[in-house]
Amino acid sequence: MTCTHAKAIHEVTPSAKGCEECLRIGSAWVHLRLCRTCGHVGCCDDSPHRHAQAHFRATGHPIIEGYDPPEGWCYIDEVEVNLPDQTPQVGPIPRFY
User: Fold this and answer.
1) What does the alpha-carbon distance between residue 30 and residue 41 come to, in Å, rounded to a whole number?
2) CA 30 to CA 74: how far, in whole Å?
3) What is d(CA 45, CA 55) in angstroms, rounded to the nearest whole number?
4) Are 65 and 86 in contact, with CB atoms under 8 Å apart?
5) H or E stretch including 32?
6) Residues with Cβ < 8 Å from 28, sequence gap 6 or more?
7) Which of 2, 15, 51, 63 gives a 20 to 30 Å CA spacing to 40?
8) pLDDT tens digits in sequence order for the chain, 97 residues long
9) pTM: predicted TM-score of the whole model, two decimal places
């Protein structure tokens, strides 16, 4: 299966230096995911709150970029996506686990 949502991939600026919601509530995360439609930074499905998937469910933005390791994923088609570029990060990517 291939992803049919390439038009949703945009060049974005990360909204935070960690999961936006976890930073707000003081929670830990495992890995970070970047929405390639709007730049929202959320935590992965292995994290306690799964904020990246919650963002997808609230907005319908289908494509995320994983920071570590770099990877693309489409929530709708449930497949890996080859991203045209990797979003530059400002400073080191924080890790909490």
Assistant:
1) 13
2) 19
3) 12
4) yes
5) strand 32-35
6) 22, 47, 48, 96, 97
7) 2
8) 789 999 999 999 999 988 999 999 999 999 899 999 999 999 999 999 999 999 999 999 999 999 767 799 999 999 999 998 888 876 666 666 5
9) 0.91
